[in-house]
Amino acid sequence: MESIRLSAPLSVELTLTKGCNHKCLHCYNPWRKSNNTIGNKLTIEQIDKIVDELAKNNVWHVTISGGEPLTMPNEMFHLIRQLDKNGITYSINSNLTLMTEEIADFLKEKLKLKTLILTSLPSINEKKCDEITQIDGSYQRILKGISISKQHGFKIGINIVITKKNIDDLDNILEFLKEFKIDYLSISTVIPPSYDILNKDYYLTNEDIVRVADCLLEVHKKLGIDVDSVTPLPLCILGDANKYQNVISTSCSAGINRCDIDCNGDIFACSHENTPYGNIFVEGLKKSWDKMDMWRHFQNINKECIDCNYMDICGGECRMITNTKIPQLYSLNKNKKINYSQEFNSIKIMENDKFTINNNIKLRKENFGAVLRIDYDDFFLSENMLQLYSVMKELEEFSIQDLQEFVEINENFYNIIDYMVKIGLLNQKSELLETIS
Ligand SMILES: C[S@@+](CC[C@H](N)C(=O)[O-])C[C@H]1O[C@@H](n2cnc3c(N)ncnc32)[C@H](O)[C@@H]1O
Ligand code: SF4
Ligand code: SF4
Predict the structure, then answer these.
(1) Which CATH class is domain 346-436?
(2) How far is CA 334 from CA 134, 136, 215, 233, 303, in A?
(3) Average model confidence (pLDDT) for the chain?
(4) Where in the sequence of the chain do the CATH 3.20.20.70 domains occur?
């Protein structure tokens, strides 16, 4: 089992500051307990150096995170301006309690923020939320931040980290999402913070995992919004790939296409790791990135997942959970029978169908071919596929027959076209589809 090694990450999560006005009980940042955050934030000069390094390595996206990035709006604005200048997109992870009209105006008017703000909401229950953040009034301030952001037209996602403390939130979440017009929901099963792994609040059971997946499904069906679990949900616990296809899509991409940069410049594959691979101010991005092969070779994966037949569609258990080695956590079983039919989302390709290339994609050449980003998903193209893609791009609109001088048209080729349509690389115009609709 091995993944391709990219020349550099496509996305990085950048910790702007370690400072935070909340002290969430579950937060993976061990320093959230300390009030001493002096020196634990990026300076303007360091931000410039980091953006230069990201641009040099052709990084596409930065998730601005922390601590709480809104504790230092001026540095955040500077970072955003620099990213804009270099054509690097960005999104923000924030608890939103410090969102003001001024900050929202800046983000909206000057920078035309199109992407989502992911807001962590520890609980939809006011008392529980304040208990988890350990700050009175935090729930009301988060709601106010959401409201200001919505008034400025931003898309708001919420991320709820599920532990035993707030799992009953799942029963009432639908109403909350409707009331506050939330655009996206992420429910992350907790990754036990390394400094508190014996805390039983983090010991989720198989039933808890199924409850999370069912809640995501229900929200997706009833509200039609995108849903996700940042922490991958093991397929052998869910038991049904077809039913849960919209919620098992997250497989871990740490070290494969993304990494994390701390505010002292240390570089990690995953933000939950404690030991860095290098430092952006010392070795630069690429050298540290190249040292993350453990993640590409799946050396740190749960033993149960190694030879599991479903690894391709499941992606395996969150590796930071695997490595906390908590015996009481939920259990995996590679021999569990899973309901899965490969036909479930097959597309009908006909000889006379016409195709065009989706122009809204990013492409970076790599030594194996190229990597593509379509919406928020990344795909690897071999050298041959890249050549085919270039031919298709030149043709503008084409049928399968138009390609016969470039490739052999056989059943496998139809499968390739089917795949390209499925991932959104090709738009399909089909008489058959038009007749059906
Ligand atoms: C560390 S926070 C920093 C940004 C900001 N302060 C916030 O809370 O959104 C980044 C994300 O990590 C999530 N997170 C924190 N601790 C976690 C844990 N132990 N397991 C899973 N997700 C966690 C938070 O919910 C948040 O969405
Ligand atoms: S608001 Fe974010 S950074 Fe702050 S303690 Fe909570 S999860 Fe951690
Ligand atoms: S054993 Fe691992 S890869 Fe297989 S279904 Fe379970 S979590 Fe997924």
Answers:
(1) alpha beta
(2) 40, 44, 24, 14, 10
(3) 90
(4) 11-322
